[in-house]
Design a protein that fits this description.
This protein is mainly alpha-helical. The protein is 64% helix and 9% strand. It has 2 domains: 10-207, Cation efflux protein transmembrane domain (Alpha-lytic protease prodomain-like); 217-291, Cation efflux protein, cytoplasmic domain (Alpha-Beta Plaits, 2-Layer Sandwich), CATH 3.30.70.1350.
Amino acid sequence: MGHQHHHIDAQTGDRRVALAVLVNLALSIAQIIGGILSGSLALIADAMHNLSDAISLVIAFGARRIARRSATADMTFGYGRAEVVAALVNYTTLIMVGFYLIYEAILRFFAPHGVDGWLVVIIAGIALLVDLVTALLTYRMSRSSMNIRAAFLHNLADALGSVAVIFAGTLIILYDWRLIDPLITLLIAGYILWMSFTEIGPVVRILMLGSPPDVKLEQVVADLLGLKGVAGVHHAHLWQIDEHRGALDAHVVIEKGAWGDADAIKASAKQRLHDLHGINHTTLELECSVHACPEPQIFAKI
């Protein structure tokens, strides 16, 4: 599957996420109060994004705990996809926040408000430090978890937003340029939407049972056909169980006269799939060439 894992033990990871949640909640409250007192929409926008960071981390924390549950008779693949669902919720939330900020910024263009530039710069500076600390807490975990990566990108976007707010506050202090506030808000919203739409695709791909992006089913079939004793492959289905595990289900036709080696051929097929494509979960239905499926299709709906 081509993934590099950088694991942190579960308890350490949970503590980091929990600490990040508390820090972001406190920051969000401070930013909202500061935004109201200063009259800065950009600061309130940054606060809303930070609040979504805290919510995303709560969701990520819960999903991490759920994902570690063992498989059951009802959930035979386990609960690993809880993290994928959490990532979808987080990106969807970010998209909604982005569109709302665009709406508010457009309104502010038509009715500019007075803004306390110094208060904006001070609060945004504190927010930037908190965002960077939170990003550091989740960075290593984000490299091996789609769920945590969604939360990490929340924080990264918010850190950039804080930089933009500091820039806006500085211009207000120096030149009393009030339109910079909604303009910076639009830039923050645009970045949030660009990042979210870019990252949500792989999440939807997993939930739609898409194949792993770095594995081509055509090549998988070709590698199986290259095995001695294999006459054909059809009804092949390749999908991702979760972010790190791929699965294959296929019918494999055994050449005439080679049925006695069917078990060895199946073992060789599974080993090849593991070695070449990192696919560890395979279900292969073996068929004798004389009694194979009529009119077989390589790709067929289940």
